[in-house]
Amino acid sequence: MNTQQLSLIKATVHILKEHGITLTKHFYHRMFTHNPELKNQFNMGNQASGKQQTALATAVLAYAEHIENPGVLIGALKSIGQKHVSLNITADQYAIVGGHLIASIKEVLEDGATDELLEAWTIAYNQLAQIMINLEAGMYKENREKKGGWNGWRTFVISRIVEESAEIKSFYLTPKDQQPIATYHPGQYLTVKTYVDSLGYEQPRQYSLSSAFNENFYRITVKKENPTDLPAGIVSSNLHNQKEGNEIEVSAPAGLFHIGDRPNQPLVLISGGVGITPMMSMLETQADKNNKIVWLHSCRNENVQAFKNEIEYYNTNFDNITTYTFFNEIERETEFKRNGFLDLKTLKEEIVLPEAQYYICGPTSFIEVQFETLKNLGVAKEAIFYEEFGPQSLNLN
């Protein structure tokens, strides 16, 4: 891009701040009207709630603000790339998206969309698209070449269903082809795809892997959401209606929220509600490593608490693990089961540890509160990692 084009992109920052969501709403409506087949790859629940439009507006704004050095966004781009690979997005689809984005800029800005501005945004988009295509090509290659790995969708059988609480079930998935499955880092997710009769198209959803790696199966744990406002909640309800022996399409494990190959530092695992799922994978994987683990979980009551027996087992049988669960309502408190909202300040001596890594997962507001509290307790933000279910709207680090 030349200097004039860079200036034109920067000049649209104030417009994006004020009208970015208007633009992205128009973009998605336009794209799904002209290319309805893409509804099979997008989470239409996030479309209905507006979360996806907001996330895209935030991303476009960030790109415009850093157009002179998009490399500073590489962490966010890698996370988006992981999601794209889990959905099997192709390079050709970037051209479709780009065409609708530029057309939307022209249609929304009207007279303000000069030929020079549209040319600048076309070049900017193509630059970003090529960055993403290259990133994702490497991810596809890694998935394809690792033992048990694959690209695209692979058929799995629901071999076992376990009711974890009044609203949460675990699904054990075994490969129909009986071939090896890929390993994963604790904290990563699977994408599953199912056809939804009431919508008339397929819907993908990401669910955290909720156990340590087992070469025979994957386990995901799903909360049944209320499907009254379709299509939000439709896939989780569909899953809860599945039977053992049914088949489902699955893409390879993905995601950047994980403990990876880190040394055995102390871990502080903080979750709210169904945010417990990636933490279970981390806990099961690390339990016998002898590094100190503090488990903090918050939920409404014991009736909806998942993995209650497992958590009690780890708390009782592993000297390196301490667990605390906070309930909005509970009949009887104990040292490790407490009434009230999770308050990290009350556990400062337990959780502020040298070289500890902190992982947070739960609703957006829950993540924000815990993140800010940890910082106020003196924890460096570089030691705090979080996973926000759905489109990413937080930029706390």
Explain this structure.
The chain is of the alpha/beta class. It is 40% helix and 21% strand. It is built from 12 helices and 12 strands. The chain has a 6-stranded antiparallel sheet. A 6-stranded parallel sheet has the order 10-9-8-7-11-12, sandwiched between helices. Helix 1 crosses helix 7 (115-145), helix 5 packs across helix 7 and helix 6 packs antiparallel against helix 7.
Q: What structural keywords apply?
A:
single chain; 397 residues; alpha/beta; 40% helix
Summarize this entry quickly.
By secondary structure, the chain is α/β, with parallel strands linked by helices. The chain contains twelve helices and twelve strands.
What is this structure's SSE topology?
Layout: H1 3-11, H2 13-34, H3 44-49, H4 51-65, H5 74-86, H6 91-109, H7 115-145, E1 154-163, E2 168-175, E3 189-196, E4 201-208, E5 218-223, H8 234-240, E6 247-254, E7 267-272, H9 276-286, E8 293-299, H10 308-317, E9 321-327, E10 337-339, H11 348-351, E11 357-362, H12 364-376, E12 384-388
Give me the strand/helix succession. Answer: HHHHHHHEEEEEHEEHEHEEHEHE
| CA-based shape | globular
Number of separate helices: 12
The major pleated sheet works out as: 6 strands, antiparallel
> Which quaternary structure do these chains form?
single chain
Helical content, roughly? 40-55%
DSSP E strands, number: 12
The largest sheet has its strands arranged as 4-3-6-1-2-5
Question: What does the average pLDDT come to?
Answer: 92
- Through-space gap between termini: 29 Å
Radius of gyration using CA atoms only: 22 Å
Poorly predicted runs are none
Q: Structural class of the secondary structure composition?
A: alpha/beta
Q: Indicate the proportion of strand residues.
A: 15-25%
